[in-house]
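Predict structure. Chain length: 176.
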Amino acid sequence: MEEEPKNPRFRFEPLDKNKHDRAAFFCGEERLDIYLKEQAAQDLEKRVAAVIVATPDGNTIAGFYTLSQYSIHAGELPPEIHQKLKLPKYPELPATLLGRLARSTAYKGDGVGELLLMSAMEKALTLSRQIASVAIVVDAKDDLAKKFYSEYGFIELPEYANRMFIPMKTVEHIFH
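Prediction complete.
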């Protein structure tokens, strides 16, 4: 399912190992560069993660993100959030994992990181209407990433260092 672009310069589409130039991608974070070049296509094929790329021309990768199904232990959520969202007292709650998000250094300063995040959140919201998800969870790689995600409404989960989440209800308010 292809999304409508937020910026006419980029299309968001599933990674195609025969079409998208993974070898040329460089974000400056070795783990993410290696992931896209060596693991992403396998994860996609094995249905471990959906890998979505932002491309200006159908070949170049300006950035990418991954989404997977996930579950949150109900105890991970701060009690006030659990109450505010009126969530059931299930031991596990369905969520969406934003596993990786990276922007090519060639597009630094072009707002590609924000476009990737908005695309990921909109796709997760759309899919949550078909496969339940109460939140999007992300593990921020460092303090700069934590700051980035918090600017869009992500909240830290106190039990886990760098783990953050945003309730799907908040995401819904962003897009409606």
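Summary: The longest strand covers residues 92-103.
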